[in-house]
Design goal:
Layout: H1 2-10, H2 15-41, H3 45-94, H4 97-103, H5 105-121, H6 123-146, H7 148-195, H8 197-201, H9 204-256, H10 262-309, E1 331-341, E2 348-358, E3 363-368, H11 374-381, E4 389-394, E5 397-398, H12 404-408, E6 411-414, H13 432-441, E7 450-451, E8 454-455, H14 462-476, E9 480-484, H15 492-508, E10 512-516, E11 530-535, E12 538-539
Parallel strand pairs: 3-10, 3-11, 6-9, 9-10
Antiparallel strand pairs: 1-2, 1-4, 4-5, 7-8, 11-12
Length: about 550
């Protein structure tokens, strides 16, 4: 059981103490059955009153132990899931870009959201199920005290029923696992519909094919979920039928064999009825445990996948960087080559060899067609990719995975497919007047505003979102700015303003600017120091 192994490995509660409390709760529950039957058979009213006091004490003990057990277990399971969530997020944050891309966002999203929520939902049921098992155990001891013949009948039925149950449960678990896998595939298709909505609207054949894919994926999920429901229903029906059969056999067989008298028969019947509740708890918990078990398996697979692609910091080779008072002296590419191989498609891309040097205060434009290597070069420059061969050096110091974090602090980057945060993460003591000035300069006044450390809305056009990302980049005030097709979504007026006013101002402030751009009409601007042109992975 993946869920069992996960919780056993991660829970910090004392197993002995929890088991002791659970045994106490289960024992008092079974003791109530004994006391109730003893009270019913007590010959005198005085004896009944004495039993009644014991029943009150036992119920109070049960309530206290049960409440403690449920609250403690639920709290510790939540804390455990919290630690797992933080551990996974920490590992993801420590991963480099290529390993992160190899794991895949869908699997990460599913693990950090759906799977953890599924396990969380089963925390109380887990405690009740364990306690139900204990109650059944103590109930069987009570049955044994009353009649060994009855115990034998109970155990034979339980053995046969358990064997049938395990076989049917295996089919149920496999079906649910397949359903969850296809649900992930269906959600991938849904994300294509949402993220590529404009592209879908522009091509009827694409829309038709995507719809057919979604319909097929949904049909598979419906079919598997329906089969899961059928298997679960069959288990419930099997359980009910088994209970009725067992009760009938006990009621008819024992008196016929003269194994028990009427008084014992009444006690056995009440015990049977008493055990129905914990058995119902066990059967009703099956679907939740099945889902949680699959979720625990997928969560473990996610962590294994992350660990396989994540090189621990202790194994990352490289010397610490020394950053001097000046931003930097130079960034040098020394025979840098980079090989990228797509895990899904199997094809690759080669960049280099590159030999170049970047000095403080330079403004460099990067040009080239799609797939020429511009973005790969930018990722190497900012330290998100690392050379397959050759070196990137900052002030003569070799860049590596071990020291890249400090190197990246030199850069403020706006990617072409950038993500816009609604809060000023990483920024401290921001002057609200400075923000207001930048909003006005970037023509965003009235579109959004800064309230505390959060912008009131991100419901902006793509061009406006790029301007807001530029505002945040300005507030970072880093020595090097990298813009990847920043002006692509701007109207002609603001595009011109970006090239003729904003970039020259960066130049005058001594900032180093590397701009990936196709706007060749501005290539002859006097503030540009160099234009690097890429073709088929080579710098021409």
């Amino acid at each position: 059981m993946h869920l069992y192994h996960l919780l056993r490995r991660e829970l910090r509660l004392s197993n002995r103490f929890i088991v002791a409390v659970a045994i106490l709760a289960g024992l008092t529950n079974a003791l109530i059955l004994y006391l109730v039957n003893s009270t019913a058979h007590a010959p005198e009213d005085a004896s009944k009153i004495s039993y009644l006091w014991w029943i009150v004490i036992t119920i109070a003990t049960f309530v206290v132990s049960q409440r403690y057990l449920l609250i403690t277990m639920a709290s510790d399971v939540e804390q455990t899931l919290h630690r797992i969530r933080l551990r996974l997020m920490q590992k993801i944050q420590n991963a480099e870009l290529l390993p992160f891309e190899a794991v895949g966002r869908a699997q990460i999203y599913s693990g950090l959201s759906t799977d953890l929520i599924t396990i969380s939902a089963v925390s109380l049921v887990l405690t009740l199920t364990f306690q139900s098992l204990l109650l059944i155990f103590f109930g069987l001891i009570y049955v044994a005290i009353q009649s060994l013949m009855a115990l034998v009948i109970y155990l034979v039925f339980m053995a046969i029923g358990t064997r049938i149950f395990i076989r049917r449960y295996s089919n149920l678990a496999a079906t649910r696992h397949a359903a969850m896998r296809h649900e992930n595939e269906m959600m991938d298709a849904v994300s294509h519909l949402l993220d590529g909505f404009r592209e879908v609207k522009m091509d009827e054949m694409r829309r038709s094919d995507l719809h057919a894919h979604l319909e097929e994926a949904s049909d598979i999920v419906v079919s598997l979920n329906r089969r899961t429901d059928v298997l679960t229903s069959n288990l419930n029906v099997f359980f009910s039928a088994s209970l009725y059969t067992l009760l009938t056999v006990v009621v008819l067989a024992l008196p016929a064999l003269d194994a028990v008298d009427a008084e014992v028969m009444m006690s056995l019947t009440s015990a049977m009825i008493f055990l129905i509740a914990p058995l119902i708890v066990l059967v009703n918990a099956i679907p939740m445990f099945n889902n949680a078990n699959v979720a625990a398996d997928r969560l473990s697979q996610l962590e294994v996948a992350i660990d396989q692609h994540l090189r621990p910091m202790s194994k990352r080779q490289g010397e610490p960087l020394v950053v001097y008072e000046a931003p930097f002296r130079d960034i040098v590419f020394d025979h840098v080559e980079f090989d990228y191989v797509s895990a899904s498609q199997g094809n690759g891309f080669h960049l280099g060899p590159l030999d170049l040097s970047i000095s403080p205060g330079e403004t460099i434009f990067i040009s080239g067609g799609n797939g020429s290597g511009k973005s790969t070069f930018a990722h190497l420059l900012i330290g998100l990719y690392f050379p397959t061969r050759g070196e990137v050096r900052l002030d003569g110091q070799r860049l590596s995975e071990s020291n890249a974090a400090m190197y990246r602090e030199l850069f403020s980057v706006i990617f072409y497919d950038f993500h816009l945060f609604d809060r000023l993460y990483g920024l401290r003591d921001i002057d609200p007047m400075r923000v207001e000035q930048l909003l006005e300069r970037l023509q965003l006044t009235g579109k959004t505003e800064l309230i505390g450390d959060r912008f009131s809305t991100l419901n902006l056009s793509t061009g406006q979102k790029r301007r807001l990302s530029l505002l945040m980049s300005e507030l970072e005030d880093k020595p090097i700015y990298v813009f990847d097709e920043w002006a692509a979504e701007q109207d002609p007026e603001f595009r011109r303003y970006f090239y003729t006013s904003i970039l020259p101002e960066f130049k005058s402030r001594g900032k180093t600017v590397i701009a990936v751009t196709h706007d060749d009409r501005y290539y002859d601007s006097d503030y540009i120091d160099r234009i690097l042109h890429f073709e088929e992975g080579r710098l021409r």
